[in-house]
Amino acid sequence: MLPAPASLPALDRIAGLHPLAPDPYRRLNPLTQLVIATAGVVAGVVAPTLAGPLVGIVVIAILASLAGVAAPVRRAGAITGLVVGGIVAVVDVLSGHGVSTIAGGPLDAGLRGALIGTSVRLWTSTVDLTGLRLDLERRGLPHRAAVALVGLLGAGPGLRQRLDEIVAAQQARGYDSSRGRLARLGARSPVWLPALVSTLDSLTERSLALESRAIGRPGRRALLWAPPDPTAERALRWAIAVAIGAAIVARLSGAIA
Amino acid sequence: MLHLHCAEFRYPAARAAALHDIDLEIPHGAIVGLVGPNEAGKSTLCLVASGMAPAVVGGGLVGTLEIDGEAMTGRPAYELAERVGLGAGSPATQLTGLAATVFEEVAIGPLNLGLSAAEAIERVDEALVAIGIERLAGQHPRRLSGGEAQLVAIASLLAMRPSHLVLDEPTSELDPVGARLVAEALHAVAHNGTALLIAEHRMDLLDGLCDRIVVLDGGTIVRDGPAEAILADPFLETLGLERPARHRIADACRMVGAAIDPAELRRALGDWPHR
Predict the structure, then answer these.
(1) Residue B210 has pLDDT above 90, yes or no
(2) A69-104: per-residue pLDDT in tens?
(3) Which chain B residues are closer than 8 Å to A143 by Cβ?
(4) Torsion sign, CA atoms A66, A68, A73, A78
(5) CB contact under 8 A, A210 and B96
(6) For B141, which residue in chain A has the nearest alpha carbon?
(7) Which of B88, B202, B86, B91 is nearest to B145 (CA)?
């Protein structure tokens, strides 16, 4: 049973520190956003015919526009679609199927890849990890598990940030950043290892900070605030979850080809 | 009282011990400054005195750490954290990365101690006011400057109200006003009975704030005595450390034939902070 908003004593004051997001997608509960992303990924695997993934991509594109992250989501969809479709096309050609099955082969795979890519990118571009942690804790997930989960999800952006810092330091020492995207990507390859090592180092220091704040103490914590979770959203989440389950079952049972 | 007895500490896989024969007592209400050249072992001593080495960082400790007469060996980190607050590492990594606002960041410690939301809020308010950062309450911790992050990290420790506080370079990124605010807050918590160990390079900050100074070199305590005597001792300069400005000014005046008492200089400079 979730605590009623009124039972969170500091709700008004702490909620005042969390201004409402400017768009309706970001105002969704973080768990709802996670369920939508999961539905996109599952649909990328089980949705029937070409229309299924196409509809999914359109839905994700609308949500990305609402959230103001259309450009990175579009890029992620294009890259994953082209890579997955390209791989399938190469396999088709090498296995002698040729281009006659492109609609059932590379195009289908590309669309599915694009749907998965856009779903994941939409979520990573907009997720509020703090809100997600608080929401999961409110639902009964142990504090340490919630912290570990959020730490894991935040590791990717952390590594990327460290990489950017190292590249910026290189630029300050004369590295030419005016070259093309591929050249910049190539220039980043030697700094992957140092970035990884320094990220791990900072994780060690951060774990010290967490331990010195008694993070390991067993038992539940009082919550100062948690993201709102209206009834309509809970119903939507359940509907999506049931649809995901039904699609998986239909796919496994052969009802969806 | 925090008591480190005959401590020798070795980091995991290290050949040599980083600390040897450390015997250190910090009674409640005392402010002990820890000084020494680079690589003297100050940060290691902070980790060992807080119990986080070996509890979190690993390694081997020979000797005992006692808090208020109880041996802390083998205790989990959260039990140690309830008794000893540790501020160590760069300011950015002292923040947990779990909060969306400074207010919630400071509240994490008290909430982890099992306090109710109302009690945690009261403590956070008090800590933010003590360090003078109420204006930062609604900011995202990731958008803080280095100095602000350091102030938030210290406020986070104060909000847990530990009976002992170990701080490694607590003012390294602060301007003089920020450093003074921190020093005044530390002075106040010591006045309320908290035992403090502060590793710090700013001798002028330690001068007047600390009752006692411990000098560390090569992992061993080479001097331990009243702050007034140790900070005036030219021995510090043989270790590459600088004595507080008032002693250096007094020496310079003496060299040109103008005798000035360093104690008078301190009074002339405002007898900071409140001792």
Answers:
(1) yes
(2) 999 999 999 999 999 998 988 887 787 666 555 556
(3) 112
(4) positive
(5) yes
(6) A130
(7) B91
* Of B85, B99, B115, Cβ closest to residue A130: B99
Q: Using the beta-carbon criterion (under 8 Å), do A206 and B96 form an inter-chain contact?
A: yes
Contact yes or no for A222 and B94 at CB 8 A = no
Helix H, strand E, coil C: the string for A221-248 is: CCCCCCCCCCHHHHHHHHHHHHHHHHHH
What band does A30 get if pLDDT is binned at 50, 70 and 90?
A: very high
Nearest to B166, CA basis, from B206, B130, B196 = B196
pTM for the full predicted model: 0.80
Of B78, B89, B120, the CB nearest to A214: B78
Distance from CA of A120 to the nearest CA of B (A): 22
Mean pLDDT of A188-208: 71
- Top pLDDT among A80 and A206 is at A80
How many inter-chain contacts (A to B, CB under 8 Å) are there?
118
Q: How confident is the model at residue B249 (pLDDT cuts 50, 70, 90)?
A: confident
Give B-chain residues touching A207 at CB under 8 angstroms.
56
- Judging contacts by C-beta atoms under 8 Å, the chain B residues touching residue A13 are 121
